[in-house]
Write a structure and sequence with these properties.
The structure is a single chain. The protein has a seven-stranded mixed beta sheet with strand order 5-4-1-6-10-7-11, with helices on both faces. Strands 15-12-18-16-17 form a five-stranded mixed beta sheet. 30% of the residues lie in helices and 28% in strands. The protein has twelve helices and 18 strands. It has 392 residues and is an alpha/beta fold.
């Protein structure tokens, strides 16, 4: 018996107002989707996880999720509607002998293991089962002018949530049938099952299984997540890095992935970005996983002139593979010139982008060395970096 989790993360989520789609927005320091993945993959009852993503999000998915998730298959692309996305995910699972499938919205990161187990258990008896909450508010129907037309008795009314579980063969058949009938107006999978005449049971969900739709939902969820302890213990790890490059004739330096016009350039095998090199070493140091020279030897022609963000991205991938996350990063640049102040925000945003962090978790500072030493003599530029990682 194989139970699959199908996590639908293909929405654009523009309503949440985040700079990235809401399923990748950070919640308690980790992407929304990651919370669902942790919860489902930690359950012995779940054997395989299939995520459906928006075709434009492949890079974002790889950057944010990456990592070592033994039950997780490669993502598949969604379609124009949620319904089509679910169907794509179901079809993708057809190479596995799946008995039951639980379809879950990535935008519900608070789903609890008990809810998932209750839905799975209900499938022992019913063809379909969904997490749901009895309606507590009094319901009004409005007319076109916004006046109350009638009060709807709420007895027997439930709010449908996810996960929604089904026998895999059943739900694939009815999804295909709905698509063949040109019906793409179903807003959840239980509605398709209902349309096809499958009995679906309501499983009362007593936990907070909120769906993140708006920016306000995201902010509230972030506070809620910060207030609840992570369901898995995380160990804090700090790392530090230091890097120097010598000035040579040139017209710019790269700092934190930002091109800064200057009267000199730097001598380097790569693009000589001391900030990204120091940060890469800080991340690798916190992991106890060697240093930048070991992973990207200057003797390797492949890295000649390389953009240094690839080094830091590789270090971030190593953090994800260990199931960890970066809590914050802090950088000090040491030089007489160029002036860092005018570029501080751009450097911060660039580093935040590479580390998948809120820019508020990135510090950029600069100092001269009072004319002393090699930086004081303007012979070169140096950077120090520190990071905090949280590792399972
Ligand atoms: Mg270097």
């Amino acid at each position: 018996m194989t139970t699959a989790a199908l996590i639908v993360a293909a929405g654009r989520g523009s309503r949440a107002g985040a700079t990235v789609p809401k399923q990748y927005a950070l919640l308690g320091g980790a992407p929304v989707l990651t919370h669902c993945l942790h919860t489902f993959s930690a359950l012995d009852e779940i054997d395989v996880i299939q995520v459906v993503i928006h075709p434009d999000d492949a890079q974002t998915y790889n950057r944010y999720i990456g990592g070592n998730w033994p039950k997780l298959r490669a993502p598949v692309d969604g379609g124009a509607t949620r319904q089509q996305s679910v169907l794509n995910g179901l079809e993708a699972l057809s190479d596995r002998d799946v008995t039951n499938v639980l379809i879950h919205d990535a935008a519900r990161p608070f789903v609890r293991p008990t809810t998932i187990r209750d839905v799975i258990r209900a499938l022992d008896i019913h063809a379909g089962a969904l997490a749901a909450v009895p309606v507590a508010d009094t319901l009004k129907r409005a007319d076109s002018s916004g006046l109350v037309e009638e009060t709807i008795p709420r007895a027997g009314l439930w709010r449908a949530q996810t996960p929604q579980g089904f026998r895999y063969a059943d739900i694939l058949t009815v999804h295909r049938k709905a698509a063949a009938a040109g019906r793409y107006d179903f807003t959840d999978d239980a509605a398709i099952a209902e349309w096809a005449g499958l009995p679906v049971a309501l499983v009362e969900d007593q936990s907070t299984n909120t769906k993140i739709t708006t920016q306000a939902d995201l902010s509230m969820a972030d506070r809620l997540m910060a207030a609840t302890s992570f369901p898995y213990p995380l160990e804090p790890r700090t790392g530090s890095g230091f890097d120097v490059h010598k000035f040579t004739p040139g017209d710019h330096v790269m700092l934190g992935g930002v091109r800064i016009p200057h009267t000199q350039g730097v001598a380097a095998h790569s693009d000589g970005d001391v900030v990204l090199h120091a940060l890469t070493d800080a991340v690798l140091g916190a992991l106890g996983d060697g240093d930048i020279g070991q992973h990207f030897p200057p003797s390797d022609a492949k890295w000649k002139g390389a953009a240094s963000h690839i080094f830091l991205e590789d270090a971030v991938r190593r953090v994800s593979e260990r199931g960890g996350r970066i809590a914050n990063a802090d950088v000090t640049v040491l030089c007489e010139t160029p002036k860092i102040g005018p570029h501080r925000e751009a450097i911060k945003a660039s580093i935040a982008g590479i580390l998948c962090l809120d820019p508020a978790r990135v510090g950029i500072k600069a100092t001269t060395t009072e004319g002393l030493g090699f930086t004081g003599r303007r012979e070169g530029i140096a950077a120090m970096a520190g990071v905090m990682l949280l590792l399972p």
